[in-house]
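Continuing the series of single-chain predictions for the mutant panel. This is the parent chain; the variants come on the following pages.
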Amino acid sequence: MRPLHEQLAAEFIGTFVFVFVAAGAATISSLTGAGTLPVAVATGLILAIMISAMGHISGGHFNPAVTVGAWVTGKIDTLRAPLYIVVQLAGAAAGAGLLRLCLSKKIWQPGNLGATLINPQAKAFGFSTPKALLLEAVMTFALVLVVFATAIDERGAFKAIAGFGIGLVVTADALLGGILTGASMNPARSFGPAIAIWKWTDFWVYILGPLAGAVIGSIIVRQCAFRLRNTCTSVSAMMRRSNHSDQFSM
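Parent structure:
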């Protein structure tokens, strides 16, 4: 395991770059009317790249919801979890703040610097705040399932497909929910632009939704893994007993 300061530095840098690119893509897309596809692709790609680059140092969370899910299931200790979350939020704030410095107000203002907000047009068609909360929870649930299956589970294929798989599920979620909620799935992703332009509309949705989805997803994965291990252990024990009986009868 890497020293704590290296892990925290990796989480800060990863979240910083992720928010800078994801919020930047959303800002430019809003300005040009490019739609959700470029934003979804940019968001998924940058997350996949940063996980591949930094995952071996810190685990590549870059998301307080993922860290909370890992803490609930005992995959990260109580000392590191809050420190991870603090540096993730700091990295997000720094990424969004630098993005604002890079762009003129006329560029970032139409898209609110990539802030994740519930689409007013969707609200006019009955997409309520509770529905937005549920959507964020379900999208984060899917994300955390993939994170645990590829990056956190000891038997997962981290080096092979973790970044790729996680990036793809984020892209898919963003294609689904980007036009409705901005497809945050990450309190840090929402926190960065919100603090950079001081716009907190419906911000609680992007805290509670991802956290709820992450906790439920991580618990389900833990229970499934626990039962699978017990089943495999039982089958192995039965095979050993069977082999022993066969040898004795011979």
